[in-house]
Design brief:
The protein is of the alpha/beta class. It is built from 14 helices and 11 strands. It folds into 2 domains: 248 residues, TIM Barrel; 65 residues, Orthogonal Bundle (Non-ribosomal Peptide Synthetase Peptidyl Carrier Protein, Chain A), CATH 1.10.1200. Helix 1 runs antiparallel to helix 11 and helix 11 runs antiparallel to helix 12.
Length: 326
């Protein structure tokens, strides 16, 4: 899969995940085969307000081992989108992705994210302005939902922003098969994604939505004809999914589910990365939400989850691993 100048042998990327796809998680994903990852979605105004210190390091820092990496931006005005996109490129990001998909009520109320699914002309204006402001070497992509709602007018608006985006130079689009109104309920409509792929032809489409296991990823890619997929919630606490999908696409034997000892090693490695990145005082708080997801692979997941939630420091974390992952 080629996105502008970025050539990926493995057409499965790590999606932008608010509150999750920080540097430690992205590095765990790379360990399991993800060639391209996206940082957490960031508000353009936040990006412009960050100048130095830990915030700049946590959110705008790009390590030499992080490439290729994409920055996902969300906002409401073309001018701030442009300035924030330039700043992310200056920070070292290899791609800029525009989020026109977020369904959170507060985001919509401030004319951001999924709001543009109902305002395609303004969305296309932002695409045009940002594309013209970036070097040719930096691909511009966008993330859309199926529409704002299930109406005919909403579908027309979807195709208006889709076609307008490619006319103004985007290199690829990620489409999530739910409407903005659906938020995270119901099922992702992969039949719609297949229709979009037929409409786009050779133009690059990345599919998204309800990809939690290797079999589903294979099936959706085969049936929809997408060029690639973005794994989101399915790889929080389960980076092994990347390895299983890669083996399946390469026609190789599928690795077995990770043993408890293998899980323990990766969970501890994730904690170590988080501690090195955030410091010992903050690592436990950042990792508790990941512990909730890692626990889902454990046969005693409810008890393990409860113990991870109680952790307050590294000693607590190691104690949980010794108790449950021996």
């Amino acid at each position: 899969m080629q996105i502008g100048p970025l050539i990926l042998d493995f057409p499965v990327i790590q999606a932008a995940l608010s509150g999750y796809s920080d540097a430690p998680m992205r590095r765990i994903s790379r360990l399991f085969g993800a060639e391209f990852t996206l940082c957490e979605v960031m508000l353009d105004q936040f990006v412009l307000s960050v100048t130095k210190g830990n915030k700049a390091r946590f959110y705008l820092g790009v390590d030499e081992n992080d490439h290729p990496i994409g920055a996902q931006l969300m906002g409401c005005e073309p001018e701030t989108f442009v300035l924030a996109a330039r700043k992310m490129v200056d920070a070292g990001f290899d791609l800029v992705d525009l989020n026109f998909a977020c369904p959170v009520k507060k985001v919509l109320g401030r004319a951001r994210g999924g709001y543009f699914m109902a305002q395609p002309k303004k969305g296309v204006e932002i695409i045009d302005r940002v594309r013209c402001s970036l070097p040719d070497s930096i691909p511009l992509t966008m993330k859309l939902r199926k529409g704002f709602d299930d109406s005919v007018q909403s579908e027309d608006a979807f195709f208006e922003i889709l076609d307008g985006g490619f006319e103004h130079g985007i290199a690829a689009v990620t489409v999530h098969g739910r409407t903005v109104k659906q938020r995270y309920t119901g099922e992702s409509d992969w039949n719609f994604i297949a229709r979009v792929k037929k409409h786009l032809g050779k133009r690059l489409l990345i599919g998204s939505g309800d990809l939690f296991d290797m079999e589903t990823v294979q099936k959706r890619m085969r049936e929809s004809g997408v060029d690639g997929v973005a794994l989101a919630r399915g790889i929080i606490g389960n980076p092994w999914l990347f390895t299983r999908v890669k083996a399946a696409l390469d026609g190789k034997p599928i690795p077995p589910a990770p043993t408890l000892v293998e899980q323990r090693e990766i969970i501890l490695r994730h904690y170590d990365l988080s501690e090195a990145f955030y410091g010992s005082h903050r690592a436990a708080a950042e990792m508790r939400k990941f512990g909730v997801y890692y626990s889902k692979l454990h046969p005693n997941h409810e008890q393990v989850r409860a113990d991870f939630v109680k952790t307050k420091n590294r000693d607590d974390w190691v104690h949980v691993l010794k108790k449950w992952y021996h």
